[in-house]
Fold these 3 entries.
Entry 1:
Amino acid sequence: MAEKRLKVSASPHIFARQNLKFVMYAVILALMPALFGSIYFYGLRALYLVILSVAAAVVAEAVCQWAYKRPITITDGSAIITGILLAYNLPPGVPYWMPVVGSVFAIVVAKQFFGGLGYNFINPALAGRAFLMASWPVAMTHDWLPPAGGTISGLDGITRATPLNLIKAADVDPSVIERLTSLEGIRALFFGNVGGCLGETSALLLLIGGIALLILKIIDYRITLSYLLTVVVLSLILPIKGHPPYNILFQLFSGGLFLGAFFMATDMVTTPVTKRGRWIFGIGCGIFTMLIRTFGGYPEGVSYSILFMNVWTPFIDRYTMGRRFGTR
Amino acid sequence: MPITFIGGVHPKEAKLTSGSPIEVLPPPKTVYIPLSQHTGKPARLLVSKGDEVKLGQKIGEAQGFISANIHATVSGKVKSIGRFPHPVLGDGIAVEIENDGEDTWAFEITEHDYEKLTPQEIIDLVKEAGIVGLGGAAFPSHVKLSPPKEKPIEILILNGCECEPYLTCDHRVMLEFPEEVVKGGEIIARVVGAKRRIIAIEDNKPDAIALLKKKAADFEVIPVKTKYPEGAEKQLIYALTRREVPSGGLPMDVGCLVHNVGTAKAIYQAVRYRKPLIERVITVTGENIKEPKNLLVRIGTPAIEAINHCGGYIKPPEKLIFGGPMMGIAQYTDQVPVIKGTSGILVPAEGEIPEPGPCIRCGRCVDVCPMGLHPCIIVDYVENLKFDDAKRLGILDCIECGCCGYVCPVRRQLVHNLKFGKAEVWRKKD
């Protein structure tokens, strides 16, 4: 019997439409509005930085996998995302070699050394950024560019500072702070024509991509929502340098918060798998972001707060598994 | 509030055959009747090579309490007894019977009064007829009808959910044999003394809901949300009663008993006509079947006979599944026979088996698991042969519904490893 054998495999025999590539390329597409924004604000230089960063990430991934004799999986899109996110976290005025160095570190050290996709314990792009921050702090904190159309304070970008820098600076003219936190200032933050990292300035453009990912259920609303809500709550409590805590919107739209809350704190590999764990993760990110912004040595705390919470992920997972069915 | 459980998925329903009336498949020239078609011990062989057997004659005797009788499903001659393809076990001992085409019954099939029978007499009739759960698990029905005294049954639930995509056999049975389903349900309710009687049907079958509301006066007909696995026993009980069957326990621990609607019909026939389980309704379906149909087929009929009755394949098949796409078992040959627990034959257009990738910890399996498990973490342990940890995280609670595997974006072999891990944990226990 059975001259022609059929294929056998374990159940299930049908699958949801969203496979790995779908997820990865959806994230890449969702990051595109912010790319167009950065080209508009900072010129073609922004595009070149992103291209260099992505190319370095993909090449580093391929070389690493070849060296480790692992399957080459550069088409899965994950290295492309790392490249884009790393570039988005750089000041637009950095030299062209910088994204290359950062991407190579992100892919080789933070990702492939630990086993590749799925095994890294911290977000590779943020690890790459942290490496660049530690190695070339001056470039990473001073190479800001004024966005096209000028800035609202007249200072950010031009004076090698971002709105968060200016708020934090001890010697800044109070009228600048006034202007930054005025309606006009908030509008500039929301649309993105302020000084800042390449892909982080426009809250609006990041929101477009982020909401698309939320609708497709590619990112989990729990982390994004709890992160943003925590920042809102804490911005009511924590003062901005003695000023009344009037400006929730300033804290929400400035710095890398939207880029972090929608695209980096939601990285699947380095965040909890449990629902309760994701709430905790988001709240933790919010707390540390605000603590760093208010009391820390750096003006901005998004990337370090996410990295810090990444490290806690296995611990959070372990203690948030919850009740199984039938164990009441 | 829709009546449902927590978790689950909603795959494409693809009920190609919900409008196709049940057709009778002419009995094949040869049937292959396995001695193990049920949960529990295989039946003990009662015939030898060369014997003449009649339709409905017992050819396998239940061994022990959790086992079931096996009957000849055609009249004719025992051609051989040997190992043949088996849809669950790969291969197994089966009786090959050459059909004489006469369908001579071993006894007369007539109507019997059953109103005066005692519960034990009914249980004996069900056992004699070799009835097992027709929903897929094939658990011997007489065992479910005999709960211990300290576990009284308050609620009987007839399960007409049919949440597996593609399958429509239960749907058609409810539409075409509503009286038999209801009467079978009444018999079960009387035997176990259930005061509350429910027929649960997914709300994608409004015609069956309307019909049974008319026909089943003593039952609450409750539409439940169309979601997979709504028809899983524990999930259905929770949806209807908010009671949770305890981990490692049975429905009777929360005063419930669940029977498939097709099983109710078979129980009615066993009690009313003393008719053994010789045939069942299956759905022959999939994008590679010319004319998908619902068929009444004799147990032991090779799959290919049923497929040919449906116009055959459209193109050479790559994959053939017994059951639905979520929990069904892929077969290596189309010669494999239909057994009591076979609810359908599914031949998909493509046979591609996706290459599994590394877990990206997206947590989707956690979100959908109806048992509240963490499949990705449990499978990490199984893959590293850490079965004690897998057990600690509740691997034995897994109902193998396949939701985790369905949503996994990297197509990890989650269900395969959960089944493997469960088997290893059980092996260590023994």
Entry 2:
Amino acid sequence: MSDLFAMLPSILMIVAPILITAVGGMICEKSGVVNIALEGLMAVGAFTAATLHYFLEPATVLSVWLAILAGGLAGLAISLIHAFASISLNANQVISGTGINLLATGGTAFMAQIVFKMERTMPFRLGMMPGFGGIYPTAWIALGVVLVAWFVLYKRPFGMRLRACGEHPQAAASAGIDVRGIRYVAVMISGFLAGVAGGCLVLTQTIQYTIYTINGAGFIALAAVSFGRWLPKGIAGSSLLFGTAVSLSIYMVNIPALRVLPSEFFSVMPYIITLVTLVLFSGRDYAPRASGQPYERS
Amino acid sequence: MNRKKNWEQILADDRTVSLFVVGLGFACGTLLVLLVGKNPAGMYQAMLQTLTGWDITRKVWNARYIGEWLTASIPLILCGLSMGFAARTGLFNIGAEGQYIVGLTAAQFVALYFPPVPVLHWVAALAAAGLAGALWGGIVGILKARFEVSEVVATIMLNYVAFFLSRWVSMAIPGANTYRTPNFPPTATLASGFLENLTNGSRLNYGLFLALLACLFYWFIIEKTNLGFSLRATGLNKEAARYSGIPVTRSIASSMIIAGMFAGFAGAAVALGSFNYGRVLGGYDNYGFNGIAVALVGNSQAGGILASGLLFGMLASSQPLMQSRQIPKEITLIISGLVVVFISLRAGVKLFLDWRAKKATRTGGRSNDE
């Protein structure tokens, strides 16, 4: 147990980007749009942040924060493709999401080849510095994002309207809500948060961006949204659980009691847990009812 | 008026739209190469060399490039068939990657442990791969049919489960390290001396015939059997199919089983065709994900998938040739990604045609009244 406490900063370092991305994914699905491009959007954010931080690092101490902001904006920009295809054109949301994932892998490596003449970004000297207790500020960002998301979704009129668009868009529209506008905003929020999360990930866990940097974190976030039953507190819990599983697969070599198991055992846990719970919860309406369905104005 | 009619018919035809989308993807890719200050001619020279073996700058011909192109296309065609088969039943099979991985792993196991009897050995390995893929797809089908679990989420989860399980069991093989197992006996491989000689020592193998047979099988099942009819009916309108007595849950399950089998064969084709040892995967091979693009461009038709599999195989195998011409090889991934994004925008074309049709009926109705 004490081992686990000693690992807490590392666990939170891994949980933070997953949680930030998952909150974005939840907001998106609550408005009625499924976003399986989270993985790709994180990659775009991570690439942008790593590149900007490399160039700004010598110039300013604020470099880390500017880099994360730029990562968020890059994620937002790319998410507009998904928004346009799935909201304005009623396209299949899974297809445009898949397209963005493919595009992100190729696009980031391509840009790295152009900017740095190699398939990854040049390593930066120092990433983000851990704060009190060895905990990175990204953990506090993640906490803040969850709290703000909960407050806006459940305590503000905008959040109520957003949820209405995901439950029954026709009813929402007849009450005078701009369904498409709100869905656009939701997709952009999820793009921004995924980009920020990508930036947080690359600046805390590594020193450069490669196409293996994200390594499924976006898909774990997607799993965390389902396992967290589309609720802020549920998603906080599921991200914590999944992040712990990921960190155990990395740091288990330090814990003698766990060394009997292969590291793949922990890597595979988030996915198996999610599958099993999807079966157990089947038939109960936890998911937003209109999630994934285009809203067609008649 | 007549000319406009033709124009609308062109927009409504899936094949021309596919061609248009691919053209648009290449155009944007070319533009991007120009924007970053490289010469797109290098990109097209690399593609030409892949397709014909003719190196236009050094004026030499080498059939090996054609062989490598066809080799790269085999798993793409098979994964495209996997995605396409599920799509015809209205399912989105993002799980071809996972089904490919379990197929590959099963083929490797049989290759290592089955007695080295000529022919029977690789047949057994192929069969094991098909079964493993079918099982992996079948899980999704049953989860979807019985428990209404979204096949998109289920397949994404199962991709990772397959990946980590494959690493786990492959590393447990005696003599395996973190990236490979011992060599297979030669009886297990799909290697073909004839095809290798024909293509000047490329890795082209009997997997080519597997892919062609699979296309034929796909066409036959979908177009010529009762099963295929039920599957298509389920895909077109689930409720209508249920109402006319088609067992919808069984259609969904069998569609995913067959889809998984195709992807499992893709795994076998790579494991037994391109390698003579078992691999411990370090990451996704991405054939499954690119198979999505293959099926979308091929409109989930057997012939279309064959053609678009060859197209994407060409993109994949021209990567090293592009890199040697100072073109970042990731441009091929960008083109694939753009093609998929543009295909999703195709929904806009339908929207436009609907709007035109609605307008036409409205004005038509009015003129009758007057």
Entry 3:
Amino acid sequence: MSVLLEARNITRILPGEIPVTLVRDVSVSFRAGEFISITGPSGSGKSSLLYLLGLLDKPTQGSVLIEGRDTAAMDEEELANLRLERLGFVFQFHFLLPEFTALENVTLPMRRLGKLSEKERRARGEKIMSELGLGDQLNKLPKQMSGGQCQRVAVARALANDPVLILTDEPTGNLDTVSSKVVQDILKNLAHQQNRAVVAVTHDMNFAGMADRRIHLVDGKIV
Amino acid sequence: MNIAVFIALKHLLSRKRQSVVSVMGIVIGVAFFLAISSLMQGSQKDFIKQLIDSAPHITVSDDFRAAKRQPVSAAYPHGLIDLRSVKPLTETRGIRGYKKILEDLKSMPGVLASAVLTGQALLSFAGKDVNVTLNGMIPEDLRDITTIEDDMIRGSVDDLIADRNGILLGQSLMDKLSLSFGDNITLAASTGQVRVFRIIGTFRTGRSEYDEVQAFVDIKRVQSMLDRTNRANSIIIKLDNPDDAFYFSRDLEARIGYKSVSWQEASEDLLNTLVIRNIIMYSVVSAVLIVAAFGIYNIISTVVMEKHRDISIMKSMGFTASDVKQIFLIQGIVLGIAGLFAGLPLGCALMYALMQVRFKPPGATEVINMPLDWSVPQFLIASAFALTAAILAAWLPARKAAQVLPVDILRGGM
């Protein structure tokens, strides 16, 4: 299996009067078809590591490679394009845009990429949503759906541009047990059946246990 | 539809009431801007038209801008002997070769010119003596080169062509001396010459100081009264395009040497005042639009503050800072355009209402309407001001939105 994402000795220090080290000398790689969980106590740097892996933040030292390409020297536009085409994010809260319907939320990354026509975008959006059991929620606004449904729409949005890597931050943290199970199964299937790499930051040990590999962080370091 | 426009419209439509309120600011701003500026420009154009119409576009006088240098001074500028109290030769006043100059001028396309001999005469009637300015002109040119025909209340310029002993007098002077149309009057010049003229026309320009002293007669009669046969002391010129007067006059003076004054030069102080008036007017009406622009700034900066989380999510999806800035700039532009499209018709309605206002200024004899300028530049200026104000108002919050760092918000800084 090919390496999709690789972090080489990355360190992130927040500057300030007293600099805070969020991530300390972490090296890790992720391959297609892998489902990896990142666990650790609160403040251990799980989310910070995820933001570095997702190119939302830049490491103070070290480098992040996406499909072999070093991102250290990339400008904001190149990083944004990589996020748009190769990465998908799911956060603890669904963070759907409230003015847009579920389908519009899902097709927004496709619109930004601009490769598909309106008709093709709609068809792809409907297909992804149907696969996640949201076929009857297409034209609903986020406020008209349950938390579990919204989180599934967020997963659908993350899949919009067919990314190779899905990064999730406590994706089930705000869901009830039934909805959590549904989302966990979806993420697992995305890795195993669709050959993507799925990285999940979680406190939930059951969810972490479903992963193929578990990375445990303490004080920003892998232990 | 462009994605930035799509998102911008969604944001605006989700806040219909706030959007409408900020659009109303622009609507009122544009309407007032348009009405006030067109009123001011209308009055300015009206004033300049009167300035141009009431006097020749160019007046060539029998004078020079700088006194002629004495030949000895010209020949020996650094001479050892300084001649003092040299008295220049006495020359007969008048433009030399004025007929030739007139011929040249009249051969030019778009140029009308006529010679004038002006002089003073004493009008005695019923025991009253009044000093009158005689404007000796070629009667055939009078209609083309002056606006006196428009101000005639009795008689016509044509009557002066038919009766070379006729005179056109102002109605104020007629009233002052209790003269009647058709009366014969006696005028005495400083040369001692006395002539009898018959009143064949009366005019009222609306300027009492003019109507009380000016009189129009055949130039030949004035030449003989003033003993200045074949002389004219000025040439007056009208151009098809009065705006060309300044450069035409400068070139003419360079060619013939006589002082040539355009209407722009003669009214320089007034025109400067108009420029200052325009600056003040545009500053005041722009202030209305600037206040309206604050409405747009307010709504967009509120949206940006509320949307920090959404902006972060969009950036995590792959939107760039430039995409985000565009979204909020477009909101400002959409509000500006909406305000403009509603503001222009409202402005036209205000302008129409102002046109209906009729009033009589103190001392005036006629009721007048407010002069309004309906020209396209007025609408373009109002539109440009409104859109610029809207874009500037949106630009600041848009820039702030573009600077949002997703990781700061996702870490919990929202």
